[in-house]
């Protein structure tokens, strides 16, 4: 094989070009050509897919890394936030609101030097519920106070049973945050380790457990309420 | 202890997606005398999703089912973020890339139907290709510096290959049939998205030699995998 034969991707034929694309070695302009061909040429797209299948086991070596919660929030903003309505500019309520907001903003600007400097502390909120259960809680995670505040909305625990709160991050098994004290509101202090994980976004779940909490360290009873923590 | 009773099925997606669906419960629903709640007793089990579950989520995402998309993100974002980070080597850029990857997944989920790839491999391929496109656009001029500073990944030992198991064991066995530096170049290219130009500098050979090496290596790999 001479060097001249190896010069361009064309010389290796479509199959090698597909292989080089999948391997990731092509330059920007060559990748651009390959992407366009994948869109336009079904036969070439199949060659690429076959090489993806051959080489994909190497991707097992990528370690899993939980992304920060702001990534999902940004995705949701990009995909799901509705465009402002056309009628907005002619809405009286909008202009009144804007005027009020301007006054409020001005007041804040004037008052700002006298207030405490703002501290970046995440506050996350979750509405906990589940189908087939009438148990509902509202949970607020307050990073500054290192606690989760729970407001009991509905659903009673059975006699001799307790509700236990769990945190679930990514695909990991649930981590107990403790038995929820009875009452309308409850404040549960959380450990620094749990706090760190909560800040990245997590699911909170409530399970029905024997009095005093799960004997196994994992939920043993039904999950009666659950929900995602979202930033406010 | 948690014990499996009867057979299990995923819970339906409604209400609070994400949490509930990752608990699987048995189909043998028993009521007990504890009040209103159906008691799943010993049969509440915690399970990671199966490839079939992930496929279902991709299909539902293609039908613009947002709950399915949220759950798909929860289940797969860590792996996809790992791929973006490895290629881009910059957290901020990897976060941006991951955003774009999931926007792509939302809009192009219907393409999954025509691929032969397993669901997770299909998702990783989107992330990997997107990250590589980004890195090519970004740093063609800086390639030499990066390549010179970087130390080559050590080849995974037999224990790593054994742990990986199954399909990856097979590809590592085939990589072992290649000459050492060529196998390392293939791995570096695949995992980190290194270009011919970068690999040529790293391995101190002319670009065309690297191209010939890798093309021959790819053909040998295919021959070995299809043996």
Automatic annotation (TrEMBL), chain A:
<dbReference type="Pfam" id="PF10099">
    <property type="entry name" value="RskA_C"/>
</dbReference>
<dbReference type="InterPro" id="IPR051474">
    <property type="entry name" value="Anti-sigma-K/W_factor"/>
</dbReference>
<dbReference type="InterPro" id="IPR018764">
    <property type="entry name" value="RskA_C"/>
</dbReference>
<feature type="domain" description="Anti-sigma K factor RskA C-terminal">
    <location>
        <begin position="99"/>
        <end position="223"/>
    </location>
</feature>
<protein>
    <recommendedName>
        <fullName>Anti-sigma K factor RskA C-terminal domain-containing protein</fullName>
    </recommendedName>
</protein>
<feature type="region of interest" description="Disordered">
    <location>
        <begin position="210"/>
        <end position="232"/>
    </location>
</feature>
TrEMBL record, chain B:
<dbReference type="InterPro" id="IPR039425">
    <property type="entry name" value="RNA_pol_sigma-70-like"/>
</dbReference>
<feature type="domain" description="RNA polymerase sigma factor 70 region 4 type 2">
    <location>
        <begin position="169"/>
        <end position="221"/>
    </location>
</feature>
<dbReference type="InterPro" id="IPR007627">
    <property type="entry name" value="RNA_pol_sigma70_r2"/>
</dbReference>
<comment type="similarity">
    <text>Belongs to the sigma-70 factor family. ECF subfamily.</text>
</comment>
<protein>
    <submittedName>
        <fullName>RNA polymerase sigma factor (Modular protein)</fullName>
    </submittedName>
</protein>
<feature type="domain" description="RNA polymerase sigma-70 region 2">
    <location>
        <begin position="72"/>
        <end position="139"/>
    </location>
</feature>
<dbReference type="InterPro" id="IPR013249">
    <property type="entry name" value="RNA_pol_sigma70_r4_t2"/>
</dbReference>
<dbReference type="InterPro" id="IPR013325">
    <property type="entry name" value="RNA_pol_sigma_r2"/>
</dbReference>
<keyword id="KW-0804">Transcription</keyword>
<keyword id="KW-0805">Transcription regulation</keyword>
<dbReference type="InterPro" id="IPR014284">
    <property type="entry name" value="RNA_pol_sigma-70_dom"/>
</dbReference>
<dbReference type="InterPro" id="IPR013324">
    <property type="entry name" value="RNA_pol_sigma_r3/r4-like"/>
</dbReference>
<dbReference type="InterPro" id="IPR036388">
    <property type="entry name" value="WH-like_DNA-bd_sf"/>
</dbReference>
<dbReference type="Pfam" id="PF08281">
    <property type="entry name" value="Sigma70_r4_2"/>
</dbReference>
<keyword id="KW-0731">Sigma factor</keyword>
<dbReference type="Pfam" id="PF04542">
    <property type="entry name" value="Sigma70_r2"/>
</dbReference>
């Amino acid at each position: 094989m001479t060097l001249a034969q190896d010069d361009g991707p064309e010389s290796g034929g479509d199959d090698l070009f597909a292989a080089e694309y999948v391997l990731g070695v092509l330059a920007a302009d060559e990748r651009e050509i390959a992407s366009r061909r994948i869109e336009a040429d079904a036969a070439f797209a199949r060659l690429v897919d076959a090489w993806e299948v051959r080489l994909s086991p190497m991707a097992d070596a990528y370690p899993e890394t939980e992304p920060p919660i702001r990534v999902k929030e940004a995705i949701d903003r990009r995909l799901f936030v509705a465009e402002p309505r056309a009628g907005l500019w002619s809405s009286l309520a909008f202009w009144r609101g804007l005027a009020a907001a301007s006054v409020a903003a001005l007041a804040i600007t004037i008052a700002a030097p006298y207030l405490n400097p703002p501290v970046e502390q995440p506050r996350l909120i979750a509405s906990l519920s589940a189908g087939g259960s009438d148990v509902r809680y509202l949970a607020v995670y307050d990073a500054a106070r290192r606690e989760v505040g729970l407001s009991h909305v509905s659903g009673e625990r059975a006699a001799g049973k307790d509700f236990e709160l769990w945190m679930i991050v990514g695909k990991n098994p649930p981590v107990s945050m403790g038995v929820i004290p009875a009452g309308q509101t409850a404040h549960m202090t959380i450990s620094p380790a749990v706090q760190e994980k909560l800040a990245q976004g997590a699911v909170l779940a409530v399970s029905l457990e024997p009095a005093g909490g799960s004997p196994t360290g994992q939920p043993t009873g039904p999950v009666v309420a659950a929900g995602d923590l979202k930033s406010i | 202890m948690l014990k499996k009773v009867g057979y299990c099925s995923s819970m339906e997606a409604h209400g609070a997606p994400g949490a509930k669906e990752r608990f699987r419960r048995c189909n043998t629903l028993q009521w007990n005398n504890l009040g209103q709640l159906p008691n799943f007793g010993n049969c509440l089990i915690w399970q990671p999703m199966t490839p079939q579950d992930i496929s279902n989520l991709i299909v539902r995402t293609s039908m613009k089912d947002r709950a399915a998309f949220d759950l798909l993100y929860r289940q797969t974002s860590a792996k996809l973020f790992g791929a973006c980070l490895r290629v881009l080597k910059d957290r901020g850029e990897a976060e941006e890339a991951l955003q774009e990857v999931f926007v792509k997944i939302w809009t192009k989920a219907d393409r999954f139907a025509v691929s032969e790839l397993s669901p997770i491999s299909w998702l990783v391929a989107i992330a990997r290709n997107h990250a590589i496109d980004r890195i090519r656009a970004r740093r063609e001029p800086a390639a030499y510096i990066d390549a010179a500073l970087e130390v080559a990944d050590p080849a995974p030992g037999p224990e790593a290959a054994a742990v990986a198991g199954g399909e990856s064991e097979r590809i590592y066995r085939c990589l072992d049939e290649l000459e050492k530096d060529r196998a390392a170049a293939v791995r570096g290219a695949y995992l980190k998205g290194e270009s011919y130009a970068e690999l040529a500098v790293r391995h101190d050979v002319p670009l065309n030699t690297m191209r010939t090496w890798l093309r021959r290596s790819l053909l040998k790999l295919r021959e070995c995998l299809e043996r």
